[in-house]
Structure formats: C-alpha cells, structure tokens
Design a protein that fits this description.
- The protein is of the alpha+beta class.
- It has a single domain, classed as Ubiquitin-like (UB roll) (Roll), CATH 3.10.20.
- Helices cover about 20% and strands about 25% of the residues.
- Strand 1 and strand 2 form a beta hairpin.
- The protein is built from 2 helices and 5 strands; from the N terminus they run ββααβββ.
Length: about 70
C-alpha cells in the first residue's frame, strides 16, 4: 500500500491504495469525482521529491503528495 495525501484547498482526507506505479495511482484517483477535477492542475511528490514520471515504480509505504496550485506572497 501507498499513502496518498492531498494538500492545500483540496480538503480531502488521505487515502491508502494498492499501486505499483504513479500511473496506477492516477488511474484510481480519476475514479473519485472530488479529486479528478484537480489532477490536471496538480504537481506530485513521492516521498517529498517532486516528479512527473507516471512510470515511477512505487514501494510499499511510499507517500504520494498531491499539490494543487496556490497563490500568495
């Protein structure tokens, strides 16, 4: 299992998923209406390292952070 956390204004509780790659995570998150609308706007980090590689292989216990765009100063 990997843990997926949603930061900022997404107001979504963290969830745990069975996933081998980030593509698997993306596929599962697209099925959740309240999350799917955000995904094309968000950055992703795996274990606090930014990535855009959907083919990234995940390990048991990895933490995926979904980071929506924010503004401010």
């Amino acid at each position: 299992m990997v843990k997926v956390e949603f930061l900022g204004p997404m107001a979504q509780e963290s969830i745990e998923l069975e996933a081998k790659t980030l593509a698997d995570v993306a596929t599962q998150l697209q099925k959740i209406d309240s999350i799917a609308a955000w995904l094309d706007k968000c950055a992703v980090a795996v274990n606090d390292q930014m990535t855009a590689d959907l083919g990234m292989v995940l390990k048991e216990g990895d933490k995926i952070s979904i980071l929506p765009p924010v503004c401010g100063g």
